[in-house]
Amino acid sequence: QVQVVESGGGLVQPGGSLRLSCAASGFIFSSYAVNWYRQVPGKERELVATTGSTTNYADSEKGRFTISRDNAKNTVYLQMNSLKPEDTAVYYCNARKNTDSYWGQGTQVTVSS
User: Fold this and answer.
1) Fewest CB within a 10 Å sphere: which of 28, 45, 61, 111?
2) Which helix (H) or strand (E) holds 55?
3) pLDDT tens per residue across span 33-55
4) What is the SS3 assignment for 26?
């Protein structure tokens, strides 16, 4: 059974940090590219960071977010530093390979004082 589960979201003050985790099972995780997306109500889901053959970040996240993976644990992390109120969103993990695409249920990140 394929599962992708995000965790680590929560409420944090501006300037704070969070580390999100994406744990996968039921498929050969190490051969998949993994992407972090985020979405706020009324807006399209946007790509935040990706790791696979290359690692890339959205421009607004460069220098603040770091994506990493531990294939032995079938887990990808998103370290988020210097958080801003505009980072508030539901963050989703997506594992993708060719036509296969698996999504988690999302984890809420709220940046507020």
Assistant:
1) 28
2) strand 55-57
3) 999 999 999 999 999 999 988 88
4) coil
